[in-house]
Amino acid sequence: MILIDTHVLIWVMSRDIKLGSKARHSLDTSGVGEVLVSAITPWEIALLDRKGRLPLGREVGQWLEDALGHPRIRLVPLEPAISVESTRLPGEFHSDPADRIIAATARHLGIPLLTADRAILAYGEQGYLRVVDASL
């Protein structure tokens, strides 16, 4: 299993070339329900859509239904333990609440996070979070 960052879900759905070939292969060979998405990701995508920063090509609700309806993808609920963990991440982690919840979700589940976010990748290099670079 692997948790994917918000931008990775967007890249997957748009078939963006920013998603590296190794990352794409890993996702393509995942089993049913093995690609996890944090419950904060739909909120983050809806917010980007609302601000006009994300051209989805269709209504955001339909886009999310299509994305989250894929058999390999499973939405992870925001449990209280994840909420608490997001406020107590070890080391130095930036203040973006969505990123904190996504990182806390991966830590809580004990699975890697697929991301291309340089700050999160650097955090992973410090040993606080298992990360996989989505650009590779």
Short structural description:
By secondary structure, this protein is an alpha/beta fold. The protein contains 7 helices and 5 strands; from the N terminus they run E-H-H-E-H-H-E-H-H-E-H-E.
Structure in words:
With 136 residues, this protein is of the alpha/beta class. It has one domain (2-133): 5'-nuclease (Rossmann fold, 3-Layer(aba) Sandwich). It is 49% helix and 12% strand. It is built from seven helices and five strands. It has helices at 6-14, 21-28, 40-50, 60-68, 80-87, 97-109, 118-125, and strands at residues 2-4, 35-38, 73-76, 113-115, 131-133. It has a five-stranded parallel beta sheet with strand order 3-2-1-4-5. Helix 7 (118-125) links the parallel strand 4 and strand 5. Helix 5 crosses helix 6. The longest helix has 13 residues, at 97-109. The two termini are 18 Å apart. The mean pLDDT is 97.
Topology (elements, then pairings):
Layout (H helix, E strand, L loop, with lengths): L1 E3 L1 H9 L6 H8 L6 E4 L1 H11 L9 H9 L4 E4 L3 H8 L9 H13 L3 E3 L2 H8 L5 E3 L3
Parallel strand pairs: 1-2, 1-4, 2-3, 4-5
Protein name: Type II toxin-antitoxin system VapC family toxin
InterPro entries: PIN-like_dom_sf (IPR029060), PIN_dom (IPR002716), PIN_Sll0205 (IPR041705), TA_system_RNase (IPR052919)
Organism: Neorhizobium lilium
